[in-house]
Amino acid sequence: MNTMDCYKPLRIGKRLRVIRPGVEYPDEGRVDIVIKRGAFGSGEHETTVSCLEELEELDLKGKRLLDVGCGTGILSVAALKLGAAEVVAVDIDRAAVETTLENVRLNGLSPQIKVVLGTVNRLKGNLKGPFHGVMANIYPEVLRDIASFVAEACLSGGFLLASGIPWEDNSDIIELYKGLGFSLLKNRWLECYTTFVMLKA
Ligand SMILES: C[S@@+](CC[C@H](N)C(=O)[O-])C[C@H]1O[C@@H](n2cnc3c(N)ncnc32)[C@H](O)[C@@H]1O
User: What is the CATH number of domain 3-200?
Assistant: First the structure.
């Protein structure tokens, strides 16, 4: 990627556009997400793109969401810009937490998000839920580890949007969550990974 490519707006789905801070872009009528690079999730990776495409299809108005493995915070920022009321975001990487806080600030969303360094086990009190939806673009072993937490934290009718799952793990992970009361709404096969949306009964 050359230097200019770093500043090109990324148009994602029907409504979203990822832009970089400090650059003026002509208005295109899209929902702009300002993302400073610094951790995984600047908007180019197929898993991030697929999650953003699915987020814009979900009804997020007024919803309280959990973002597991927030990276740059791109999914949290997009969800809030698409109408979610509040997000709790966690990441085990300090740089990711710092980048998320900065991106949330750049988008003027600081009051609506709590960012926690660590795994979901660090969440206490009402930060543990309940949530109307969980976003988790993360490794399959983490999706396995957090399954019972997610099932408990997710309200009935809530969604699990997951990605980062290598093809070979796709059906195992889906079966695991089916066993915890989720049903499959959508399953997408990307170049190397899969993405799914499940709904809690
Ligand atoms: C694939 S990146 C996703 C980033 C961003 N959410 C996106 O969609 O582009 C996964 C992130 O999960 C974090 N992570 C890995 N294991 C974790 C765990 N057990 N709990 C919380 N975060 C974790 C990593 O530090 C990394 O930032």
Answer: 3.40.50.150
